[in-house]
Amino acid sequence: MKILWLDRLIPKFKDAVDKGTLAMVAAVDLFYLNVKMQKLIQQVAEAEGKKLKPNQAVKLRKMGKEITKKAIECVLAGEEQKKPQSVSVKLPLELYERYFGQMDAGAVQEIMEKALEGYFGKKAAGA
Predict the structure, then answer these.
(1) What's 10's DSSP letter?
(2) Which of 46, 53, 63, 102 is exposed most, by the fewest CB atoms within 10 A?
(3) In whole angstroms, how far apart are CA 98 and each of 102, 113, 120, 124?
(4) pLDDT along the chain (127 residues), means of 10
(5) Measured between alpha carbons, how far is 115 from 97 in angstroms, rounded to an integer?
(6) Contact between residue 38 and residue 9 where contact means Cβ atoms under 8 Å apart
(7) What number of other Cβ atoms are within 10 A of residue 33's Cβ?
(8) pLDDT for 1
């Protein structure tokens, strides 16, 4: 008997579950992903000749919309993807120019760090 959520899997994943080449636990995580992502995962796994393991399906599900071919290859190879060392934050140009217009990136980062420490330090202390 097929479970209802299996209908949300692409046909190749449904067949793999039926044949026992895709664990039911892995299939549960894959069904949360949209069809486009499922197809990409299936294509990469097939091209690499890899069988998708439950822990890999969990990692791919957690990536959500950030799944790329490279990310899938890394997960299938057992490699950890590097997290970005920094993030970008958008400020209105007027605000940036008012406070940081003549500074280099290092100085801006230092000021932002001190300002955030001051803000969150005061907030944590109840001020």
Answers:
(1) -
(2) 102
(3) 9, 18, 23, 28
(4) 72 92 92 92 93 93 87 87 72 91 88 90 61
(5) 17
(6) yes
(7) 22
(8) 44
Looking from the CA of 16 toward its CB, the CA atoms found within 13 Å total 22
Does this model's pTM top 0.85? My answer is: no
87 HSE (CA, 13 A, CB side): 5
> How many residues does the structure list for the chain?
127
Q: Which residue has the tokens 């140009």?
A: 93
Residue spans of alpha helices (H) in 20-83 = 24-30, 35-48, 54-63, 69-77
Provide Rg for the chain, Cα atoms: 22
- The tokens describing 122, both together, are 């005061």
pLDDT of residue 33: 92
